[in-house]
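Lab notebook, entry 297. We have the chain sequence and a SMILES string for magnesium ion, and the next step in the workflow is to get a structural model of the bound complex before anyone spends time on docking refinements. Request logged below.

Task: model protein plus magnesium ion, output structure tokens.
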Amino acid sequence: MASNDIRISVRDLVKTFGTQTVLTGVNLDIRAGETVVIMGGSGCGKTTLLRLLIGSHTPTSGTIELLGQDISKLTGDESDALKRQMGILFQSGALFQSMSIGDNVALPLQEHTDLAPEIIDIQVKMKLELVGLRPHANKLPSQISGGMMKRAGLARAMAMDPKILFYDEPSAGLDPVTSAEIDQLILELTRSFGMTSVVVTHEMDSAFTIADRMVMLDGGRVLKVDTREEFDRIRQLPESEAALLSLDEQIVYQFLRGAANGPITRRRSADDYREDLLGMDAAGNETADRRPSGARY
Ligand SMILES: Nc1ncnc2c1ncn2[C@@H]1O[C@H](COP(=O)(O)OP(=O)(O)OP(=O)(O)O)[C@@H](O)[C@H]1O
Ligand SMILES: [Mg+2]
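Result returned:
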């Protein structure tokens, strides 16, 4: 169950790549034991936020505290110690193809602990059992299905008994039943180990199954952070009531319902059309010189 113990604290986080500002000032607190789902359209900055949280990108400005420590102020050793308390399930599972499933799960334990091989072996069996893969320990990643690879990735992410687990699109590319199985696994693991989970997904069924709270990102900012129940209430609103929501909530509404019409599509077509045809953005500012090069007029 979530408590008031803050595990992740993000303040005024900005991230730019070259001239592109991807995150424009994100604030977010994630409490111990809760599962927070980060969602938003493609390219809105979800993976970038996740990478910043796990320390694989450096913020342009703003701060990130994990387990009470400002990650920009850590020494190498402190940062390694912190990373041992975090598990990460990458989108692809990111298994080493030349190593068996068992060896993939053993790797973090071999690299980060002084445990004896027999103990590591027991740990690996326990983690594989949790995800239902113990009979497949000796197979290579190429010899198992996509859903099994996700589960193997989860067993490896869990190897060090992390306090925080990060998932990037855990059910992407899986059939609905396998994807529901992964959701159940995430729920079980989070509940039985009291872990804090941060899950990036745009699969709405999955998000509503696993989330305690949800974060909607749009254009690099947080549009809404609230409980699953509140997001569900918005999702269930009839269209007549949704029309009365704030613009931010109308964006949330369209996203949650996967509707073809709404502020997201209106904005997109306005931007694209004006800019493509006229060299202007939606506000009518000139964005580019559209004359063909060499044209004389
Ligand atoms: N390393 C990088 N260098 C330059 N630009 C990047 C880099 N990583 C991400 N971006 C840009 O940042 C924006 C957000 O990318 P990000 O991967 O965070 O989106 P996302 O919300 O995860 O999208 P998706 O749902 O498609 O996975 C994109 O425009 C992308 O091109
Ligand atoms: Mg992504």
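Notes for the group: The longest helix spans residues 176-193. Worth checking against the assay data. Confidence is low (pLDDT under 50) at residues 289-297.
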